[in-house]
Amino acid sequence: MNLDSIKAMIRNIPDFPKPGIQFKDITPVLSDPEAFHYLIETFAEFAKKQQVTAILAPESRGFMLGSALAFHLDVKFIPARKAGKLPFKTFQVEYKLEYGTAVLEMHQDALVPTDRVLIIDDLIATAGTIHACIELVQCAKAQVAGIASLISLSEFKDHQNFNDVPYLNLIEI
Which end of the chain is more exposed for a tag (fewer CB within 10 A), N or C? Predict the structure, then answer.
C-alpha cells in the first residue's frame, strides 16, 4: 500500500454538501483494511515523534481517524463536537468554514495542562476547523504537539499556516 493508491481511492462528489463544493469522499479508503491500517500506522509514526498524550479530532470524519489513532497509540481521544452535542461544561470556539461558519466545543475537563495534543482531521481546506481546535486546546492550557491530515486542498495552501507546530499532510489535491 502507498499514498498514490490511497489517493486513487478518494472519490470526488460534485456539489455536496452544496453547489460549487467538490466533496472528497474517503469512505472507500476507510473500508479497505490495508489502506486504513497504512494510514493509522503512518499517522502513529508522526504522533510518536511528537510524544502525544491525546488525540483531538473534529466531527465527523476526523473522528474516524482520530479514534483509531488514539486506540492504536493507547492515548486519550478527545472529540471536538458541533455546538450543543456535548453534555458537560464546554469550551466553545466559533470559526469560519470554506462554505459558512460553525462552532466547535470540547469538554472543559478533557485535557490537562501537561497534555501534548495531536489534532487530526481528514481534510484541511481553509484550516478554520484546525485553528478552532488549536484554540480549544489552548483554552485547556494544553500544548498542541502536532497537526495531521489525510488531505489538504492546494487551492487553500496560504491558509494552512500553523507556525512552528509540526504538520503532517499525506495527500495534497
Answer: C
